[in-house]
Structure of Fumarylacetoacetate hydrolase family protein:
Amino acid sequence: MRLGVISGRAAIVRGDRAADVARASGGSLPADPMALLERWDEAREWAATLPASEYDTPVVEDELQAPVPRPRQVFAVALNYPPHAAEAGFTPPEDPLVFTKFPTCVTGPRTIVDLPDGKVDWEVELVAVIGRPAHRVREDRAWEAVAGLTVGQDLSERVTQLRGKPAQFSLGKSFPGFGPTGPALVTPDELDDPDDLEITGLLNGAVVQHDRTKSMIFPVPELIARLSAIVPLLPGDLIFTGTPAGVGNRMDPPRYLTADDELVSRISGIGEIRQRFARPPS
């Protein structure tokens, strides 16, 4: 099952067609994607029997919005791929290094991002979406708490991020538009192996990041177990699971995003998101 958001309304996507959830269910399920995630098990059971005739809306990629538009909690994980830890000058961590992105930075899959002053960098990431309340979940049951997976970018303004001791990770990663996600939420059963997905970042058509999610030090189930051991997870919460090697501030010389750059973030089986960048008027 693939959940998209079109004109602010939850839709089940199949190929290039979509079914509006509220209309197709006769109003028994909500149009608001956040409310739908509160009833995720019911929504999945209903969608499994949805006839093809209900997929009556063409899917226009530029019109898809964030599949989870108003998450209550957004977690993010640093240094979760060994090559990225190495390029940053660190040994792989023994415990997940967790910070937050503030929810107001979350946007959809096709956006123009205003560049703030400083040094804006890219980080393609797999994002796990929580689908049911989860507290003290065992690792071997953690996938049961996942509504689906989506593509994300953990855009980062490095000057703000690294200012001070300790550094200001959350602030530097939460400027408006710094959490693009999409193009849809994809349930794990749609994927051959949700623990092993190809992940790629392209800048102006050139590959800058490439790995497989099986390389993660802490895979999705372990992250959910570790986080939920401390923090109750809620339907619609996002977990940005970390980025592979290839970020701009570790290039020689460093390369940061500039106006008119295009960033494509792609994960096999899920899709891609595209961001362009601009300098706001002075």
Q: What stands out?
A: The chain is about 15% helix and 30% strand. The mean pLDDT is 97. Residues 74-278 form a domain with the Fumarylacetoacetate hydrolase; domain 2 fold (CATH 3.90.850.10).
